[in-house]
Amino acid sequence: MFLRKSGTWVLIFLVISPTIFCKSMSAPDPRWAAKKRRMSEKVRNMFYHAYDNYMTYAFPHDELKPLTRTHTDSLVELGNLKLERLPQEYNGSALTLIESLSSLVIMRNNTEFERAVLWLSDNLTFDVDARINLFECNIRVLGGLVSAHILATDSTNRLVQGNYKNQLLILAHDLGRRFLPAFDTPTGMPYAWLNLKYGVMENETTETSTSGCGSLILEMGALSRLTGDPRFESAALRALRKLWSMRSSLNLLGTTLDVETGEWLEYSSGIGAGFDSFYEYLIKAHILFGRDEFWRMFQSAYLGVQKYFRHGPWYHEADMRTGHATYWQLTSLQAFWPGLQVLVGDITAANSSHREFFSLWERFGVLPERYLLDRQMLHPTEKYYPLRPELAESTFYLYHATKDPWFLEVGESIVDSLNLYTKVEGGFASIRDVTTMQLEDHQHSFFLAETCKYLYLLFDDSFLVDGNYIFTTEGHPLPVLSDWHERLPEAYIPSNWTFVKSERQAKRTSAMSRQVCPATALEYGHGIEQQVQSACHVTDVRNDHRCLVDEDCGVDAITCRRRSCSMAGYCGLWLSI
User: Fold this and answer.
1) CA 387, CA 447: separation in Å to the nearest integer?
2) Marked catalytic residue, from 73, 99, 233, 369
3) Which of 298, 303, 531, 539 is the most exposed place for a label (fewest CB within 10 A)?
4) Strands (E), 124-267
């Protein structure tokens, strides 16, 4: 998002408010306004079809099986590691209900929100003998409770006076305390799995992923700010710092690691499964807590991605040690990346990748889990689509950044496909095989927490008016509050807003380094303005790209690699040829 003050643009990363996006846009076309009203109602109906069936056939268990109209307690089954049997006293965590809380508020159903909050207050307990995945329980349950507590105490969504007395925060605090034994390792990086009642069990696996130990700071940090208990933020921050210290000289991280030895187990690096929320949480933590430390991590990590993974509009995986490509594949989780790029101002790159993802959606009807770029074919075993939200999420961000109505048409196409291929009488079912559209008996909780939410916000953003929020990786909104900031980042201090266009500083540094919007950043070569094309782009000194030394050359807008001066006296990516 972009703010303008005293003639200077400042990029406010990830603070979502339509009152700031695209100030220069003209009044909306009434034809699109009518379509947005119609589509928001269509998405609302989708949400309630999924929600009502869950409440009828699966509640208070975790998730719905829409084909058989039964339930699954998936919170203790995540990651393909399942208990032989669930403990007798475990009746589910009402996972889908928790995940739906903020969506109920966004869709202005405060009555159902209040009913859900009061039920959870009276019935939810975490004192159960159940093995859970720390990462999933953090983003889904802890994040859902913390976000709902904030919404419950917001003056615009306040519950009936006297009914709510911080019960959700009390539950979140209890859950957070049960997480802490996982961090008791020599490295400070947490175990991926623990028992809610007994902590880390004997012979527990020591393997975890980059996302698993690097994507905890938002929820646990917010819990610390709300309760005044610093242990949660401290544990998550220590784990993140240790993980970042393990990066390669290319600022890349591997896929999996050992939390006891601190050694990498898998060196392939990317932006999909095992990585995605790590990048996302660096920039969002910077905004939520005001630490420049998070920004510095993100800037280095983002430039590493652009240098070593990007190939045209796609992103392959690469060895963290060498930067050499390992797997040429697209995964559906990568579809979040254009949304993240919008938030750093790389609109052109975001739009390019988003269009490729959508072309696959149009080709198959939905987005397959894995597609082999080098062979131009589906992965032979990962042909499924589990109602994932990432493409809808990026569509939401791109529309609100550009106000291009084409993204409304993309959203409509997504909605139509979901209704055509996945809607059944008992809810919405996942797709087992995108080539046959064979269904799978599972309605994931994130369909209500994210997929429906981002589609609804695409067409109706009234929840965001006059409010600044970040969304966690599970789609739970957290407000950006000044009293959560240790200090405002330098670029956001009004007295410094004029420094961005100071004479020499703007000349040889990227928009990302200056924390300004690339679309409004100009550089000057021989007195001629040159438009900056991406967050990392540094223009050549001369418009004709002639040079005498390497210092006359800038940084390439697409690859983020430094250009050099050839023997013939022209700037280019000669060292990469």
Assistant:
1) 6
2) 369
3) 531
4) 131-133, 193-195, 207-209, 256-258, 264-266
